[in-house]
Amino acid sequence: MYLSPQQSRALYEQAVREHFAILAINADSPAAIVDALEAAKAVDAPVIIESSLWQLSSHTFGHGDAVLGLQRFAGMVQQYADSEAYKDVPVIYHTDHIKGPQTIDILKPAIQGIERSGASNFQASSISLDSSELSADENIALISHLCTFAQESECALTLEMEAGVDDGLTSVEEARYLLESVEKAHPGYLVLWAPGVGTQHGYSEDGFPGFSTEQVSKQQGLASEICGRDMGLVLHGSSGLCDEQLAAAVHAGVIKVNWSTDSLACRSAAAAAYYKNHSAELERSNAAFKQTAMDNGLQTAVAEAYRPVVEERMGVLNSHGKGASFCKLEVMECRS
Predict the structure, then answer these.
(1) What are the boundaries of each domain within the chain?
(2) What count of other Cβ atoms lies within 10 Å of the Cβ of residue 286?
(3) Cys bridge to 234: 148, 199, 256, 333, which one at CB 3.0-4.6 A?
């Protein structure tokens, strides 16, 4: 079930109330999208499938045209999510790591509605942009521009705001400045807050010794106080944390956990093992060559290695069993 911005907001609010987090998979291919949905279905969990600028511009999706990539990526997520197979899986499509001069051009259609031939327009479920190269004032200005655009277009907007995630711990002063500036000018749009809590994007062999669940709890309380409603935190850089740290982060107020580096590592390792284990069959003289060389053989092997890892991580985030009941409630509310 593909969630609208309003439905996504309801799911995020449920996650705050019930102390679970939704795994946000930075999907690098169509196969990764399907595997994420299959894993969520297997454990009855909601899932966030998100794309960054590099996916939207990639050979597979936009082939250099990020706006076209947005249409193709989001359209694929929506088509799968609304199919019979995944009708009981709450699926959020989220824009992640959108930056540079194309930021507004990419995110405006995501907010207003993405056109698909032969189908009605649909919106991205929730929105964020990459603030890593922005000053605080530039961050506020871009977020405010998106809020103004949503208001003028009469479009719903469920928004994640980032601080400098890779810069260590976000100070109370910076958090207050960022959040208050947006909330006072554009009340109600902010739903997710992504401050620095001692992690960083990418992988660290030593983990993240600066990670602080105390910081998570403090930032969650501060964001809720400023916005006057329960605000959930987003954890960027989760690939360097162990299961115990992730569970503690959820308990402290994290409701969205971004996952990219470990996801890529799992899929690429499975692909490497497949080619190594089937090297003889990849000789063109081998009777099994075509069956082995076709993409389906590789992607099936990758899925078999990948899905259990996704399912396990969803369990760590306490999201098992949270899916179908949410979808049924949403369907009943739509009918009433």
Answers:
(1) 5-264+307-335
(2) 15
(3) 256
What is the C-alpha separation between 99 and 105, in angstroms, rounded? 11
Q: What span, in angstroms and rounded, lies between the C-alpha atoms of 334 and 282?
A: 52
Q: Can you read off the two tokens belonging to residue 236?
A: 């960027």
Q: Considering the entire predicted model, what is its pTM?
A: 0.94
pLDDT one-digit tens code per residue, 115-134: 665 555 789 999 999 998 99
Assess if CATH 3.20.20.70 describes domain 5-264+307-335.
yes
Q: In this structure, are residues 34 and 310 in contact, taking their beta carbons and an 8 Å threshold?
A: no
pLDDT for 207: 73
Please, what is the average pLDDT of the chain?
92
Cα–Cα nearest to 319, from 47, 4, 31, 1: 47
CA dihedral 110, 18, 46, 131 (to 10 degrees): 40
Helical axes 213-227 vs 172-185, angle rounded to 10°: 30
**What share of the chain in percent tops pLDDT 90?**
84
Check if the beta carbon of residue 25 is closer than 8 Å to that of residue 36. yes
Residue 159 near residue 190, CB atoms below 8 Å: yes
